Amino acid sequence: MSFIQVGDLAQHLMMRRQNTFLKTQMTTLTQELASGRKSDIAGAVSADFSVLGDVEHTLTLLEGHAMALKDARLFTDTVQNVLEQVQTQSQALGTSLLSVMSAGLEEPINSTIGKARESFDAIVSNLNAQVAGRGLFSGAATQSAALAAADAMLSDLSTALTGALTVSDIVNTVDQWFMAPGDGFESMGYQGAAESLAPFKLGEHETVRHELTADSMELRTLLRDTALAALAGDSGLSLDLSQKKQLLEVAGEGLLTQQEGLTRIRSDLGFVQERIANIETQNAARRTSLQITRNTLTAADPFETATQLEAAQVQLETLYTVTARLSRLSLMDYLR
User: Fold this and answer.
1) Is residue 79 predicted with pLDDT exceeding 90?
2) Taking 50 as the threshold, does the pLDDT of residue 25 lie above it?
3) Residue 198 neighbours by CB distance under 10 Å
């Protein structure tokens, strides 16, 4: 019977190599247990990274689309909120203007004209709103306010009304200032761009457009009728009570008539908001599915990893025990 003799040095090196191997294995398993990912990805995918690469690439694209969707949702939601405020203000003013017609006293008429001036200021302020440093109703010129200051526009209108003698003259002059090409509103009132904002890219083949600007006919008309009511109190016009009531009536009827146009553009915007929400939902579901696929390829099973870690720990402890016993063996102890 033959024996293979192992010298003390060789045995020491063998024990040391085994000790290093077990410690390295425990470190690897501990990292996998903590991170939840396999350390040997190449082995996990059998050195074929094509599927994992496609998954990672698509997830990166979806993350980018998620940021764009968030931006589009914030922008359109803010626009919708602003339009809601503008519609509430204009509808309330229109109702007040027609309600005051029955008043025979000048005080409630003048009070309502004062409210019209406040409403014009508020509507202009709302249409000049920004989100993330971009004008909501300025078209492509997002760094600019959509409209000139309310005081500046009313001052320019007051100058344009010089010489207007009748209610009809005032109505026609204000209408021309707002509606005629190249007149006051286009030359100094609207400060945004003629081009609409660039489309929001929501996905690889999905975009939505926000084309509404303060230059739109619906908002121009709203501003025109609100300004008409505010100008009824212009001292330069020297209007009597009857003329003021006529102007407020024209303005009030115009404001209430324009509510249908505001509702329509808000409905169109609501459709865009719905598209954004649907794409967000679809992308979130797709992202979840891809994450599951990635985890299937790269995730370390926690139960299996914990079992292997415990086995490695037992092996290391056994190695320590054997090493300790071998270190105590000697011929002298045996002969005794």
Assistant:
1) yes
2) yes
3) 12
Please say if the pLDDT value at position 10 is more than 70. no
Kindly give the interhelix angle for 167-179 and 150-160, rounded to the nearest 10 degrees.
130
Superfamily for the 53-288 domain: f41 fragment of flagellin, N-terminal domain (1.20.1330.10)
Sign, CA dihedral 65-66-68-73, equals positive
What does the block give as tokens for 71?
């931006």
Distant-in-sequence, close-in-space partners of 324: CB < 8 Å, separation ≥ 6:
none
pTM of the prediction?
Answer: 0.74
Q: Is the pLDDT of residue 158 over 70?
A: yes
Report the Cα 300 to chain-centroid distance in Å.
36
Mean pLDDT estimate for the chain: 81
Identity at 77, one-letter amino acid code: D
- Gap between the Cα atoms of 128 and 146, Å rounded: 5
Q: Residue 51 has which token pair?
A: 């599927």
Q: How many residues does the chain have?
A: 336
User: What residue has token string 């008429």?
Assistant: 109
pLDDT grade for 324, boundaries at 50, 70 and 90:
low
pLDDT at 245: 92
Which of 54-58, 180-184, 209-213, 259-263 is the least confident region? 54-58
Give φ, ψ of 207 to 5 degrees: -135, 155
Q: What DSSP line would sit under 313-324, residue for residue?
A: HHHHHHHHHHHH
Rounded CA-CA distance 64/7 in Å is: 63
Q: Check residue 188 and report its DSSP letter.
A: I
- The domain ranges of the chain are 53-288, 302-336
Q: Is 63 helix (H, G, I), strand (E, B) or coil?
A: helix
